[in-house]
User: What shape does this take?
Amino acid sequence: PSIEQLPSTPPHLTKVAQEVPKLSQTATEEKVERLKDTGDAKCRLEFTDLQRKSIQQLQDLRDGISQDIQRLNVELMRELMQRDELQVEHDAVLLDLEVCPE
Assistant: This one.
């Protein structure tokens, strides 16, 4: 049953259970906006631009892209762990509401 369907749910628990998904979505949206604002999105390189670069420049570009991928993977893992923690908290609140519907 949803939080609204449970009988006589204490108001503070109802509010917490409803706010957890909103907080997670808001945090995700803020991260996306921050990535856009900080210029993490690299400019698109055309094939002809790449042809004009030296081997060293191409290797540097590759290394930079690899570092970006690694950094973003670490950030993704942190975000997924945070999402999982919020989901566990949300599930615990819902379980508390089901166990003691006072």
In short: Confidence is low (pLDDT under 50) at residues 1-6. Residues 28 and 82 are 11 Å apart (CA to CA).
